[in-house]
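Chapter summary example.
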Amino acid sequence: MNRIRIIGLIMLIIGIILQFSFENDGTDFLTGLLVGGGIGLLITGQIKSKKKSHSDV
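The structure predicted for these 57 residues follows.
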């Protein structure tokens, strides 16, 4: 696993732990961001998107 996927796994685990440890509704947004970002990083394994180059023909 590369570093980005490890960071994604850590974000996913932290988001799940925060979701079940706090009873406050204000943490739902934060945990959603952490879980969603973690899943995205686990799947893609990269942060920036690839740019499409346009050739002049």
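To summarize the output: The longest helix spans residues 3-21.
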